[in-house]
């Protein structure tokens, strides 16, 4: 199942876009009060129960995806889709901190990044390595001899 | 007198050998060896520079009077010119100053890291941050935190998430930031050791990679995770000609990867068999570092003997 991200959700019609603006805060409120991760289906049911407004599933997915893209919702993979939780103050602070830590060499002295970006030469080498491995199938052990 | 130069030559040798050693040795062994070596060699080269300066200073008439030794005897046995002595003293002061400045910056950054880690509440020590960044790092603290962007986690499947988290946890558990900092500090004292400090930064990554491979039980998944994250963290490039390279890549790539940046080298190492422990090589390297220490000590006792001789001549 592919990521139903904001792009994948497509460009909603003008009407839906206006509705979305009003619905975003309602959906955020539902998620904040839920106290547990909700799938778009859960959100839709609660919205219907609360407001009596019947929305299509894809509209709800569009809105939560947009909120996620804005950094207001965090999502977790659950089965074939995602569940969403509101991003709390701690995480928002952490997000700002990440940006702050990204600047300045002082912090590089303390942090170790998992993998930094690649030069174009390294990118080429890396693709070669990983492609070679895929070709060698289960030959992970045998390749040890090539190492010097 | 060549003993006096040995503590200055060996760091240059270590600088040249660091990268091959980082590739050859088992990462944990390599990290310990290279870190201890940087400290020992920085100390030895400082001692050698101090001796240079001391020899030159011993020529000064005022000091000869104060120490009650014969200046002429001292000058006859003294191999160091005044200019070299002054140069050594300046290098010594410069190195000490650079190390102090670096130490101050580093302690500041570490204190900030501890403060921030303490403020972040996290399940299992993992903090997921929102926003558009592809980011994952270990934040040292008490306890340390693993900070991962939600966008990155979304892109990884469960196995690769586990590999990523295991890698970062290995950094925190092993206090890898301390190794890197100590080596950098030593390189600030003696810039010839800079390649060794860089090698330590690489070997702690390898150390964490090997831990992640042990925890997840799958070297290839760790390799693929590193590759995927590195590509995600890189700006998009045109990739048309590259895919074809993969075909030749399977045979030729391990050679060039030895000279490549850290990410392809880490991936190549993980795709190969686990590195063996090479106790003999380790011992040989330790012996060379020891040689630098012994020659610095010998040179110091030479100076001491010369001073005693000059004192006897004066009295």
How would you describe this protein?
The complex is a heterodimer of chains A (148) and B (315). Chain A has 148 residues and is mainly α. Chain A is built from six helices and three strands; from the N terminus they run αααββααβα. Chain A has a domain at 14-89: Arc Repressor Mutant, subunit A (Orthogonal Bundle), CATH 1.10.10.10. A two-stranded antiparallel ribbon of chain A has the order 1-2. Chain A is elongated and about 55 Å long. Chain A starts with 13 loop residues before the first helix and ends in a 13-residue tail after the last helix. Mean pLDDT of chain A is 69; it is low at 1-12, 102-106 and 135-148. By secondary structure, chain B is mostly helical. In chain B, strands 1-3-2 form a three-stranded mixed beta sheet. Residues 237-257 of chain B have low confidence and may be disordered. β3 (112-113) of chain A pairs antiparallel with β2 of chain B, so a sheet runs across the interface.
List its traits.
heterodimer, A: 148 residues, mainly alpha, Arc Repressor Mutant, subunit A, two-stranded antiparallel ribbon, 6 helices, 9% strand, disordered N terminus, disordered C terminus, B: 315 residues, 3-stranded mixed β-sheet, 3 strands, 77% helix, elongated
Question: What strand order characterises the main sheet of chain B?
Answer: 1-3-2
Main beta sheet of chain A, described? 2 strands, antiparallel
The outline of chain B comes out as elongated
SSE series of chain B: HHHHHEEEHHHHHHHHH
Average the pLDDT over all residues of chain B and give the rounded result: 85
The level of helicity of chain B is: over 70%
Average pLDDT of chain A:
69
Radius of gyration of chain A: 22 Å
Which residues of chain B sit in consecutive blocks of at least 5 with pLDDT less than 50? 237-257
| Secondary-structure arrangement, i.e. CATH architecture of the domain at 14-89 in chain A | Orthogonal Bundle
Task: Give a nutshell description of this structure.
Chain A has 148 residues and is mainly α. Chain A has a domain of 76 residues: Winged helix-like DNA-binding domain superfamily/Winged helix DNA-binding domain (Arc Repressor Mutant, subunit A), CATH 1.10.10.10. Chain A is 54% helix and 9% strand.
